[in-house]
Design a protein that fits this description.
six-stranded antiparallel β-sheet, 29 strands, about 10% helix, about 40% strand, DUF4270, DUF4270 domain-containing protein
Length: about 450
């Protein structure tokens, strides 16, 4: 129905928008004057075409995240993911004396849970990991300069160690630990290390060997440490980067009493502390997704999509119909929302991420921008609404109002959006969200309210 009004435009639009909010794909013309031939069409579209696929990112930084992540877990829909933690150790000042009559007792590694108490997987069963000596010194890679610069994603800002990097380590472990990762109540984890390793380095400290006074000589001797999870683990656990190795000793003091003490090796340069992620998607719809075949269409995955932290999997979203709409003349967007539903549970052993963001990726699928909050320079975090146990899905909602103004510019030509876990979780966790489906199609929709002047 068309109704005629006199008066100011602002008085006309308000009730119209309220009515339109409950409509679908309807146009309504509002005339400014009975005798005017100019009409104002206000429309709502909640079924604009969205093209999607699953994409595997390259160049995921793994260093200096503050999290030592160790473990392995598996989900039927998306496969397994494993994290091995690598780090350098740093020297302390050992001049303040070890008594001449000191006797070496033992050596142990002390790990403390990260302040977030993060875990992913089943923590009610026994986990196991081993401590190994790395046999090559760590190095960073810089892809932000030279020939590789064009391939550098927006989140790579300088030299780093990428999380698919594997360093060699001695097959014989310095120590192993089996434990139930009660991460929320755990105070610390103590791992007894090899006695010969401890005795040898304690003697270096006692005699002020150059390996205990010069960092280069020390790192040539002890390149680093790898914490390697067992293949049968059921969970990943986050520890703080305040790792310590304690060399425990005892001696008889001048009063004739036995005294115990220790010297420390702490985690060293955090530039070389990183987590290596490995995945295995065998037997899942995403089995073919890897560093060589980086994109899978909906047809190839039987309508399935997901995104995951750590492994660098994103959901690719292309809004060609929005670009076409914005090329029309006399269009003004009033509201633009991208709404994504996930079937992953909010809680439980494998919770969906409560944070999500969007990258703008170029035609080569390189993330070149972050989608920012409207009229802001800060990264936009999706509004997350948790689902429930009665069938309501989690939802992520993004405001695309400002994006619509950019989508037809040269800088955004032939771009797409990558749905991802929000940083810093993107680099130091493994939460995954599986996109919900209906009639074998992903539940991703773009809602647009726009005004067209005629």
């Amino acid at each position: 129905m068309i109704q005629f009004y006199k008066g100011k435009l602002i008085l006309i639009l308000f009730p119209v928008f309220i009515a339109l909010f409950t409509a679908c794909d309807k146009d309504m013309s509002v005339f400014l004057d009975r005798n005017s031939n100019d009409a104002l069409n206000v429309s709502i579209i909640d079924s604009m075409a969205v093209t999607t696929s699953t994409y595997q990112l390259d160049y995921m930084p793994g260093a200096n995240t503050g999290v030592v992540l160790v473990g392995k877990t598996s989900q039927a829909e998306i496969g397994s993911v494993k994290s091995t933690a690598y780090f350098e150790l740093g020297l302390q000042n050992y001049v303040a004396g070890i008594p001449e009559n000191a006797v070496f007792d033992s050596v142990n590694m002390v790990l403390r849970p990260h302040s977030t108490r993060y875990y992913y997987g089943d923590t009610t069963v026994t986990n196991k990991f081993s401590v190994h000596q790395v046999t090559k010194r760590f190095e960073t890679t810089d892809i932000t300069t030279g020939i590789d610069a064009a391939n550098a994603p927006v989140f790579v800002t300088g030299p780093t160690i990428f999380n698919n990097t594997v360093y060699p380590y001695d097959a014989t472990p310095l120590g192993t630990k089996s434990f139930r990762p009660r991460i929320k109540s755990m105070d610390s984890l103590d791992i007894r290390l090899d006695q010969t390793f401890g005795t040898t380095f304690f003697d270096f400290m006692r005699t002020t060997d150059i390996k205990t006074t010069n960092t280069d000589f020390f790192l040539d001797y002890l390149n680093g440490i790898a914490l390697v999870p067992d293949e049968n683990n059921k969970a990943l656990v986050a520890f703080s980067d305040t790792v310590q190795i304690r060399f425990n000793y005892s001696y008889i003091n001048s009063a004739g009493f036995k005294v115990t003490d220790y010297k420390l090796l702490n985690l060293g340069n955090r530039t070389y502390q990183y987590n290596n992620f490995e995945y295995d998607r065998t037997g899942t719809p995403f089995e073919a997704l890897n560093g060589t075949k980086k994109e899978l269409t909906l047809t190839e995955t039987n309508g399935k999509l997901f995104f995951q932290a750590g492994t660098g999997v994103v959901t690719k979203i292309t809004l060609k119909s929005l670009q076409d709409l914005m090329r029309e003349s006399n269009i003004a967007i009033n509201k633009a929302e991208l709404i994504i539903e996930t079937s992953s549970a909010y809680d439980g052993n494998y919770p969906a991420s409560t944070t999500a963001m969007l990258f703008v990726a170029n035609s080569n699928n390189i993330p070149i921008y972050y989608l920012t909050a409207p009229y802001s320079t800060s990264i936009q975090q999706a509004v997350f609404t948790a689902g429930n146990q009665t069938g309501k899905n989690n939802t992520y909602t993004f405001d695309l109002i400002e994006y619509t103004k950019s989508i037809t510019t040269d800088a955004y030509y032939d771009t797409s959006l990558f749905l991802s876990v929000m940083s810093p979780g993107l680099f130091n966790s493994t939460n995954a969200s599986v996109i919900a489906t209906q009639n074998n199609a992903p539940k991703i929709k773009l809602n647009i309210i726009y005004t067209k002047f005629q």
